[in-house]
Amino acid sequence: MSHRFLLATAGLGLSILTMPVAAQQQLNLFNWSDYIDPALIEAFEDETGIDVVLNYYNSNAEMFSKLTAGGDAQYDVIVPSGYFMPRLIGAGLVQPLAAEGESLPGREAILEEFKTPDYDPEGRYTVPYLWGMTGIAYNTETWPDPQPSWALLYDPEVNDAQPFALLKGDAQFTFGTACAYLGYGFDCVGKEPWIEAARLVSETRQRDNFVGFVDATATIEQLARGTIQAGVAYNGDLANKLAESSETYGKIGFFIPEEGSQRWVDVLAIPARAPHPEAAKTFIKYMLRPDVAAQLANYNRYTTPNKEALALVDPALREPPVMPDTQTRQRLVSTPSVSGDTLQLLQQLWNEAQSR
After folding, report:
1. 89 is in which domain, residue-wise?
2. Within a domain: 1
3. Which residues, in sequence order, are bridge partners of residue 51?
4. pLDDT of 166-195, one tens digit each?
5. What are the φ and ψ backbone dihedral angles of 334, each rounded to 5 degrees?
6. Residue 132 in contact with residue 265, Cβ under 8 Å?
């Protein structure tokens, strides 16, 4: 699979890039690792004259820590997970994309289900970037036909010896997986289910075949090397690796557990004290263009929330595992947003689950 999708229509819609940004010739982008086609950055720089400086993080928690330590005055565009936005808004770490009562040009291209999400009901702070699913990746030679269940990670009778990992850096997601396995549902919130989830995570950490908490992209590499036999991964990451080398990654399978898992949405937002806010808005308008949104999806092998871009993406992105089928969609839920005392409880239980 080539990560170069020709910008045959790159000249279309360039009026949105006319420049109130002459004095803002730099954009500091804070993004997940390897989450944007370098060709898109190069094209944006050529079209606008704005130089893009890339910085990376590997979890929402890492991003939040950097922003609270002054990064909200250092970075111009961030790419958080949608459910994390209320924490950023509540902490005053992001700014609206447009004045109240106005809308950022280009939002009309967004699919209806992503226009006014729970994490940003008025669509003031975000535009969707990509969406996908989180599930279990595993070695098909070790388990040719596993039951699609979180039990592969949490039940020592199902997996008593094969090395496995849990996802690094996301307390609420990990508690969600434990809650799903325990019968509370992936979207559990509250003291009782979280206490049981924390206990299960703590017990799981003590098992001899538990390797540790691993980033989703590292999970796939460790599966390919045989370091682990099961772990948590994102559907697009695996699709990307399979397209890159079926020989290296062909033995890796993927499923959405029957107890339920996460449909996530990553979004574009602007930090509260962004040094180049007009350049940031120019970049977000650029990312909303259908040709650009399609190229982004083709590069990352995830699903675009841009309705006008769907016809332009690779056909494989309209089929499983990238585009979930009806049965799989029924297993997916959004991660609830939490704040205040509930968030403090989550952090406390997470710290205890990792330290016991």
Report:
1. 14-126+269-323
2. no
3. 26
4. 998 789 999 999 999 999 999 999 999 999
5. -85, 145
6. no
Q: Do 54 and 75 reside in the same domain of the chain?
A: yes
- Residue 6 placed within a domain: no
Across the chain, what does the average pLDDT equal?
Answer: 91
pLDDT tens figures, 12-55: 344 444 444 445 699 999 999 889 999 999 999 999 999 999 99
Quick check: 350 and 267 in contact, CB under 8 A? no
Residue 194's identity, in one-letter code, is W
Q: How far apart are CA 336 and CA 173, in angstroms?
A: 10
Domain shared by 311 and 223, yes or no: no
Find where tokens 């961030």 sit.
78
Q: Is residue 8 part of a domain?
A: no
Tell whether 157 and 219 lie within a shared domain: yes
Lookup result for tokens 């599966």: 223
Total structural domains within the chain: 2
Contact 187, 334 (CB under 8 A): yes
**Any domain includes 34:** yes
- For residue 162, the domain's CATH number is 3.40.190.10
For the chain, the C-alpha Rg in angstroms (whole number) is 20
- The pair phi, psi for residue 121, each rounded to 5°, is -60, -30
pTM of structure: 0.83
Distance from C-alpha of 163 to C-alpha of 207, rounded to nearest angstrom: 10
